[in-house]
Write a structure and sequence with these properties.
CATH superfamily: OPCA outer membrane adhesin/invasin
Structural class: mainly beta
Distance between the termini: 38 Å
Helix content: under 10%
CATH topology: Lipocalin
């Protein structure tokens, strides 16, 4: 109950009002990832993903959608990988956002059934101005509220953090470089750890 109480207090203590106009942001992203898998066997895979994100904001509410796909491999194993997340958030103050939503990561292997991690997550996202209107830090932390691994079928837990720098560019563009690390865990000693850097260029309207 403590997280729910915290969220309720933050909402009740909402500070400065935010604009009630619709605001949009759409971007393209490229990521370089390292995936460490551990279970009956262990593997370390690396690769690149391409994707995008869309953010819709109105007043205190924010909707976010991210998707990326690519391929990770090592000397003996190669897997297609797709990852996506969606969240609905509330900003009690302009620099803090609290959200909930699903997150999935799927490994696609030719001739085998797909292996998918699926979480319902709680998220906290905070921004801090380094140089006002030019450069800001962005921190996002998420925790799985519930989760499943489909192969082998098992309940799962997980969490992660993303640290980034966001710069305001000409022509309503922003650039963000971020480092992310996250982990999923299931029974039987199954564990997946992902870390990587992502470069995103987005257009604001």
């Amino acid at each position: 109950m403590k997280p729910l109480v915290t969220i309720a207090v933050l909402i009740a203590c909402a500070g400065q009002p935010l604009s009630a106009q619709w605001r949009f942001e759409a971007g393209l992203a490229g990521a370089r990832e390292i995936v460490n898998l551990r279970g009956n066997t262990s593997a370390r895979l690396t690769g690149s993903l391409l994707g995008g994100e869309v953010v819709v904001m109105r007043g205190h509410l924010t909707g976010r959608l991210r998707y990326a796909q690519g391929r990770v491999s090592n000397d003996s194993v190669s897997r297609d990988l797709a990852a996506g997340e969606a969240s609905l958030g509330y900003a009690p103050v302009s620099w803090l956002e609290i959200g909930v939503g699903p997150q999935a990561r799927t490994f696609i292997a030719s001739g085998l059934s797909d292996r998918r991690w699926l979480f319902w997550t709680g998220r906290v996202r905070a921004r801090g101005a380094i140089f006002p209107d030019r450069l800001a830090s962005v921190v996002e932390v998420w925790q799985g509220l519930s989760g499943r691994l489909n192969r082998p079928e098992a309940s799962a837990s997980g969490g992660g953090v993303e640290l980034g720098l966001e710069a305001r560019l000409p022509r309503n563009l922003t650039g963000r470089l971020s480092y992310r690390v996250e982990q999923g865990r299931a029974s039987g000693g199954i564990k997946e750890t992902v870390e990587g850097f992502t470069l995103t260029v987005a257009l604001r309207h």
